[in-house]
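During the second year of the project, the team shifted from modelling isolated chains to modelling whole assemblies. The rationale, set out in the original proposal, was that interfaces cannot be judged from single-chain predictions alone. As a representative example for this report, we include one of the complexes processed in the last quarter. Its constituent sequences, exactly as entered into the pipeline, are reproduced here:
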Amino acid sequence: MAVTIKDVAKRAGVSPSTVSRVLSNHPRISTETSRKVKLIMEEMGYHPNIMAKSLVSKTTNSICIMLPKSAEELFSNFFFMELIRGIVTQASRLGYDVLISSGSNEKEEVDGVSRLLNGRRVDGVILLYSRKDDPVIDFLHDNGHNFVLIGRSEQYPDILSVDNNNVQASYDATKHLISLGHERIGFVSGPPHLVVSKDRLKGYLDALHDAGLESKQEWIVEGEFLQESGYRAMSFFMNLPDRPTSIVLIDDVVAFGVLRGLNELNYKVPEDLCLVSFNNIPLTELSTPPLSSIDIGIYNLGYTASQVLIQSIQNSNDASYQKRQIIPHRLIVRDSSMYSVPKH
Amino acid sequence: MAVTIKDVAKRAGVSPSTVSRVLSNHPRISTETSRKVKLIMEEMGYHPNIMAKSLVSKTTNSICIMLPKSAEELFSNFFFMELIRGIVTQASRLGYDVLISSGSNEKEEVDGVSRLLNGRRVDGVILLYSRKDDPVIDFLHDNGHNFVLIGRSEQYPDILSVDNNNVQASYDATKHLISLGHERIGFVSGPPHLVVSKDRLKGYLDALHDAGLESKQEWIVEGEFLQESGYRAMSFFMNLPDRPTSIVLIDDVVAFGVLRGLNELNYKVPEDLCLVSFNNIPLTELSTPPLSSIDIGIYNLGYTASQVLIQSIQNSNDASYQKRQIIPHRLIVRDSSMYSVPKH
DNA sequence: GTGAAAGCGCTAACAC
DNA sequence: GTGTTAGCGCTTTCAC
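Output from the structure prediction step:
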């Protein structure tokens, strides 16, 4: 049997409540008692029972992350691990534990989150992605739970969220290619039900429009966050009679797929095709050629999400803070886009 | 206020204990009562309070993962994310939640694990790495906690662990190069305090020895699990008067660093240098040339660790199961090692 | 098959 | 500044 607050109290010759007060650094406790009690705790190897504390305080000091049903199909592992690192780091700094949950379909996700939240095991949830018509968001929103979305919800513009300005980021990427003289620019998007895909598509189109450039439907391809998508998009583009001279890609991994395909067909990057992608994972500098990419501050996204969620948990009443946090992005130009189109 | 077991009991006209029995599918409960109570639970939106249950049952149905202090410095993110995916998948299947913890130094790690375990918040721990003289292992071992190590402990050979046969895996990789006619084979190791580094070094040396080949001290380089280490090792090797014609590398990411360096110096892989590394991350097939690598079944390591830990939690008494599980490895040969040394 | 009662380890009024 | 008391929501003997 573990040593409890009562055991400590008895040994110290004080009441359990005094011990409890020492534990929580209650102001009205004598330095003397506090010192003595702390000593005895140390001596007896006392450890507060977190569950018991939670039960009475009605707060768990933990938050939960929902992993998407099939992480490997949606995003690169790198993305999620970075996010998690950011979340966990900031959470521990604020004294919160992080629980990881996942479900193999949307129903399981809702059930899991419901069990954890309604069962009072966690105080809030971080959603790592934003998709259209997400029943998990509906559930969280309708039941007044604390949660923050990494990304953007179209349905609930007013919920707590941490996001990049993806429209602007994609605009920047496209603008970069335009400034190099490119006039035929393609776009490889992600799954259409993800908000991030839509935002980046919009930025791309806006940039073309503002520059007075043509946007052809056939220059836009949808796919997954997978190499295969890039590979397929590449072979589609390269067979076009009027093929693009450069592409903006939703994700580095997709760009790697394009790179591989181009390599097999003996095309040269950037001479035959310029590439700019998103996420700036470490391997972008290692590929041949190194890949231009938009750094979206993944760690920072996670870190901030953690921060915002815990803040909202701690003052559920006032909502003085920013509902929507934007993490800055930054275009990192590397060899894959260092080629100006010759004037004609 | 959330609806409790009492509320349900009152509404159903039964006692709280009956409701509790329905919840845990007690055998001696009438089908009729059970049906009725379940209906009312549904109606009232009842959710069992996990904390309260834990408090009395003295079991939390959750396990904890310790993230190494600086994941980014030690291993690739990919490795950890795969591990976590495996762990979380199997844990949820068995009805366990997974908590992620981390510390910025060994003391914080011990404190964190101690708080969680002694505070009765988790039932067991998975350690994601094995280093020499790890105080976390000491703590876990000395206090009789449930834990499993992914890797191997030199100090405690008898603890629960899930590992590859790293000696054999490294032997296989080296043998592969030998069979291609290589006689000067280098080895780029990881941090020397990690057991995995030692095991793989041993396999490499054994293979050389069994083949009657020379092993030179200068052909062995230690580093981190970072590209930079590979880069540095490469420039060291290539400046040797009697330089190796092939290298075994502790990790794919390190191999990428070598690849970049060779590229910059206009060396060709595999003609000038053959490479075989470990982990077989998805990008190994995308690099130029694609990288030969040992697939160590990362997901499987995590999955099995989860399984073994939960098993040990559930029957703390009997120890009929295997103390040490070995996950099979598999050499994937790609272009980076497809070059036989010309006979002389 | 079901109920009454005690108690898991802790906190928080309310006393003094 | 400290003790007393009640109770958080649940399980689990022990009755009947």
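The radius of gyration of chain A is 26 Å. The longest helix of chain A spans residues 77-93.
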